[in-house]
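Why should sequence recovery work at all? Because a backbone constrains its sequence more than one might expect. Tight turns favour small or flexible residues, buried strands favour hydrophobic ones, and helices have their own preferences. The token representation captures these environments compactly. In the example below, the structure is given first.
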């Protein structure tokens, strides 16, 4: 899994912290831990952090602990949601015929200059203008 730059989608972070996710939890936890030890930390977006926080709270994680967990990831390269990202997301949505939210993930990954997006939601192996989707929960990676 040696790449130049990785963008991480919400589901991977969530599984890394969701002890009820069984094997997905263990695999995601190991992969996210690996990311923390790379010389080039991965990228995420404000959207990812927002979704991550909401999902933690839905799983009954106390709000202060959810806040602390999410803010730890501010050490990574965080892509802000702004006007240009919004417009880029609209273009990606039209170009690839995907959901608005997935398009914003792609736009943020592009802005971060990522070569890979780690996601379970997007199709493993799909290439979006040079950005490869990798499902790090698939065995053998």
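From this structural description, the recovered sequence reads:
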């Amino acid at each position: 899994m040696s790449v130049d730059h990785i963008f991480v989608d919400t589901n991977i972070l969530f599984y890394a912290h969701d002890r009820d996710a069984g094997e997905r939890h263990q695999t995601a936890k190991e992969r996210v831990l690996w990311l923390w030890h790379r010389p080039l930390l991965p990228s995420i977006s404000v959207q990812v952090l927002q979704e991550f926080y909401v999902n933690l709270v839905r799983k009954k994680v106390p709000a202060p602990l959810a806040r602390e967990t999410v803010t730890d990831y501010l050490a990574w390269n965080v892509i802000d949601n702004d006007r240009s990202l919004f417009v880029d997301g609209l273009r990606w949505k039209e170009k690839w015929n995907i959901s608005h939210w997935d398009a914003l993930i792609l736009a943020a990954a592009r802005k971060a200059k990522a070569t890979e997006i780690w996601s379970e939601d997007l199709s493993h192996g799909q290439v979006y203008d040079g950005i490869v989707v990798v499902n790090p929960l698939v065995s053998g990676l």
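A few observations help interpret the result. The chain has six helices and six strands.
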